[in-house]
Amino acid sequence: LHINDMAYDPGDDSLVVSSRENFLFKIDYESGAIRWLFGDDNKHWFVNYPSLRALSVTLLDNGAVPIGQHTPTIEGAGQILLFNNGWGSTQNPPGTPAGISLDSSRATRYRIDEGARTAEIMWNYDNGLSSLACSSVYQAGGEQGDYLLSYTTLDLASRSIIEIIDEAQTLLFQLEFPDLSCVSGLREAAIIRLESVNYRE
To answer: How far apart are alpha carbons 57 and 54 in whole angstroms?
Structure first.
C-alpha cells in the first residue's frame, strides 16, 4: 500500500488515507474498519475484488474520481479537498487493469455521503497542467480562503510550479522553477500563517 498522505477527522474519530495505487479510503481509528473506498473503478482493486465493490463510493457528477491523489484535508460536513494527480496505477500485478489516467491534474473538493456511499464535486480547479506525482493543494482561512497549489513533477519531473488562486479561480501568484522529481518542490507545499509575526525595522 503506497500511502501518499492521510488526515485525521476528530468529528467521527476516523482517518482519510490516500493510497496512490488504488483509492482514497476512510477507516475507523479505533477499530480499523474500512468505512468507504473512493477511486477509479477501472482499476485492479475494483475489477478483481468483488468484496471491495460494496465499500466503493459512487461519484454522482460528471467529473474525475481520485486517481493517484495527494494531500487529502478534511473540510467539514463530509467534505474532502485533495490534489488529484490523475496518474493510473504503476505497480498493479501484471495482467491486471491499471485504470485510466487523466490528461491533466486537478484540485477537487468532494462531499461524501457516507451512509449512501455517494460523492459530489463541490469545487474543481483544472489549469491543464499534468503533475504525475507528489504535488498538493491546501486552502487557507476557511471556506472563502485562497488556495495554495504545488505542481512538483511537470514535464517528466523537470520543473515545478507553485500557484495561489482564490475561490473564483483567479490566479493571484505563480512561481516556476527547475526541479528534479520532487527534490526542490518536495512532496507538498505548506501554508505559513504570518498574522502573529512581529516585524521590526
So the answer is: 9
